[in-house]
Amino acid sequence: MVITGRKSAVLIVFLLFILCLNANAASDDISLADFIKQNNFSFRWSPILDTGELKYGDDIFSFKPGEDFIVYNYKEKITGSGIYRDGGIIIIDGKTAETILSKSGFTSSPRPVEKESADVKPSGHRIAAIIIDPGHGGRDSGAIGRHEIDGNNYTVYEKDVVLDIALELNRRLTSAYRDKKIILTRNNDSYPSLDDRVEKANNVKLGKNEAIVFVSIHANASFNKNAKGFEVWYLPPEYRRDLLDENNADKKTKDILPILNTMLEEEFTIESILLAQNILDGLDKSIGSKDLNRGLKEETWFVVKNAKMPSVLIEVGFVSNKEESVNLSDKNYLKKITEGIYNGIKRFIDNLEMINTGGEN
């Protein structure tokens, strides 16, 4: 099941409603909703992963209801936790509540929250960089479409189509997000290797609570000359990678590295699916009346599986289809494709940052 931005928001509201119900639990236990309200914690919930995060100042407590541990600041595993469900309500027991309050340095007076100036954005997870990867290039032309139109031979190269889209997408994103790094893996007819592309993405320096996304742009080809349409790919959810380097982890972190790796992989999976869905929706709105929406698909493409971040691969159309190859050579049509991709990325970023900073849609 794919959760769109709107459906995700509805699920979050529904789950928060459940949290607010009265708890049928032991006297020392308290509903998570009451704990959050009484102690001035902020709260983030993933309805797909069924996991939550409690935040107080710079301290973050990650948990999954029913598990016998919580994770403190993504580094320390605290066992014997008591965050569980009771009749559909999420409960935190007294011992766990005390542990969280103690770890966060909580006192009876809520930790003061520093007021923000008008030009400072609220703290929270944000997309700090976007990698745009136009496939192929240089000696690698990618898919080639050769057709005869009105008696003339006609050729379209994938590498040229995707570079035009990437350059325009870069221009639009740079203009819209002056606070973010917009990075092209190539900006001309050059050929960076697949390893070069993912290395460039993986080496981007990020600050605390900052994230990055990877968008690879391609054009399709098929022996079936009637095949047509656009589609967006993401990594299969069951695929697992080593996202965290144990050489950079301290002793405490090494003990829970598999847990942290799984949490990060699941987060990347969700965000990749949401990014893919938003881009597909953007393309459908922009060119869906002229082309076929082939939907979302899963595959272990090299750049998608090796980029250690939410990542998608877009196929904008088939150069092997005569009608579509003509469209893919039309600058105005390519701008419509770019508009669809841009709107999808923008919606994904705006929704993600709105939810994480406590804003409203």
Strand and helix map with partners:
Elements: H1 5-19, E1 30-31, H2 32-39, E2 42-46, E3 51-56, E4 59-63, E5 69-72, E6 76-79, E7 83-86, E8 89-92, H3 94-103, E9 126-134, E10 144-149, E11 152-157, H4 158-176, E12 181-184, H5 194-202, E13 210-220, E14 230-234, H6 251-255, H7 257-287, E15 293-298, H8 302-306, E16 311-318, H9 322-327, H10 331-356
Parallel strand pairs: 9-12, 9-13, 13-16, 14-15
Antiparallel strand pairs: 1-8, 2-3, 3-4, 4-5, 5-6, 7-8, 10-11, 14-16
Helix pairs in contact: 4-10, 7-10
Short characterization:
This protein is an alpha/beta fold and about 350 residues long. It has ten helices and 16 strands.
Keywords:
Copper Amine Oxidase, Chain A, domain 1; elongated; alpha/beta; five-stranded antiparallel β-sheet; 16 strands; six-stranded mixed β-sheet; disordered C terminus; 361 residues; 2 domains; Aminopeptidase
